[in-house]
Amino acid sequence: MLRITRLPGLALMLVALALLPAAAQQVTITYWQYEYATKVEAINTLIDQFEAENPNIRVVHETFPYDAYNQRVAASVPAGRGPDVINLFYGWLPLYIDSGYLQPLPEDTFPPEEIERDFAPMVRAAKMDGRYWALPTAVRTLALFYNKDLLAEAGLDGPPKTWDAFLQAAESLTRRSGNRFQRLGFGVAPTGQDHHLIREVLFRQWGVTPYSEDGRRVTYDTPAGTEALEFYTDWITKQKIGVANFFPGDSGYREAFMQGLAAMIIDGSFAVGSIRNGARVNWGVAELPVGGPTNERSNFGSFWAHGITRNARGAKLDASIKFLKFITSESAMRYWLDTVGEIPARAALAQDPALASDPVFGPFVASLPYAHATFFVDEAGQRQVLVDAVNEVTLQGVAPETALERAAQREQQILDDFWSKR
Amino acid sequence: MGRRRFGIRLSLNARQALWAYVFLLVPMAFFLYIRIWPAFQAFDLSLREWNIVGEVRTYVGGANYERLAGDPRFARALLNTLRYTVVGVPAQIVLGLAIALLLERVTRYRGLLRAVYFLPYMTPIVAAAWVWQWLYSPNFGPLNGFLDAIGMPAQPFLDSPAQALYAVTAVVVWQNLGFVVVIFLAGLQSISRTYYEAARIDGAGARALFLHITLPLLNPSIVFAVVIGTIQYLQLFTQVVNLNFTDQGGPLDSTLTIVLYIYKVAFQRFQMGQAAAATVVLFAIILSVTLFQLKVLSRRIEY
Predict the structure, then answer these.
(1) Which residues constitute the signal peptide according to the record (chain A) (predicted)?
(2) Which of A182, A263, A297, A307 stands the most exposed, by the fewest C-beta atoms within 10 Å?
């Protein structure tokens, strides 16, 4: 009797013993990103997939409001808490790297030459001191959003391919009485994407490389650079195809476009969702026009990247590396595109014919090979410098040459401040 | 004799006081830890370099203050804050007093009118600022519609480096007015009618009544309104941020205030040490201005 009753207990113990090593290996890692409904859902689904493939790893997903992101991280550091894998805007990477918060990606799992072969060239902005510190799932580029009906009304059968055609269309579509606008030919937004347009598109099309190779020197203060800046400010002061803050508010230029009160805007792929949901007009997307002395294509790219923090050690580090590998894989990127609507960071996917011919994402994807991500060391400060240069010219009548010289000096000061502390 | 061998013998009053202190200790400790201690930490932080994410806070001595002194944006923020205060405080005191005096005279709908003037003060600042953005809009705003209708050229208001600061000040005055009116109405009510009656018998005119009775006896209210108003303007932030949300403090720093400067340096550019140094400077300014005002303005209260 005794023997029989003990048997199931014994079996249970054996089973438990067999499971014990697996249970001991169970490791939990934490992933942080900012709160954005579709991204949260997408990551949750990806985590489920990842956990199914790796039963001994559990990923805890935590999100924070965008505005408080850096403060949250800062608060978690002294407390010794915080994520193992974190999603960061690439412009913050220098700050996080210098703080010792991130660890470089291990070169055996993520060989730099493989990253440079497989990912869009802009990802190089995540390389510092010869090593990669983070990798993105998706990237963003800029494109021209245009109102199809208005352009047709102006006699154009498609979006403008050159800046000349762009200006012509914009001028004929602008409606003004006195100095009040009823409709903009172009939704001017120096504080929106236009400062990127000047920095990485117009400067380069005018043959100016905005920064030195090592990112330490401002090199746009040249006669050609002045011409590029003036080309832009002329839209506001001479051709008068638009005005800043036409619609008050956070992204008024986009609102105006969605209401049909701006015929064209330049915006990022991240704007597709809002425009899709909110536009009351028949709209299309095109690659940015070409022009300038070089007549070349150029674009600005940016991305949110996943990095591994110094919290990840031992088994957690191994799990974090696996997770990073997973969320930057081709399949994750495809899923991301379908659910979040952001274009994949891997160049191979960018060559995907279905994606390239997509009427909305196609132009963004086509821009990947020639998109430059500015190496920002102080994103807010550097942005302000160029916004101020535009305002000096358009609001105060300062000569573009002087405005650009001042901007270059101010931005050089910011770069010097950063590099002198390293 | 030996009835209480241990402990100190206390009177009833002393014991009650002791208990009061014991109860006060809890909020006091909380206050010290939450408000006073961080203030000292800000002093300490102003002598260090810290980028908010890093663990190391390097001691740099007065370097942050030197950088502050050499930063034209900070100089601009100081100058702007001075302008806001010098224009805004007198404007809201004069308007507030005028409206309070008028409200004193009306007998019908006084409560309703008082509520109307107080309403802007209760409106959330952010919401009001966003509505004002539209009111000021050069292209769609009713203000420019009005100017247009009477044949005046449209004004850029918030988009002009020359006009923006005054446009912001007008919004702040509009919003604070209700509060000032209420203070003055309370002050006016506390002045005894007998003074006026006596003066009238002596043949004093309306002007004399105002200058020699109302104004002096209203002095405590005026001092209060000036001190509170000055502190409000020295700490101006929310209106400025939301009236030009995409270029906060702009255009070209024309609306930048000290507090907004601190916010941008700390939480957009992550230079916590320099931001802390600016906080210390602001603290010193508010402290000295308030002490000065209390000393100078309250002198005439005694009669």
Answers:
(1) 1-24
(2) A182
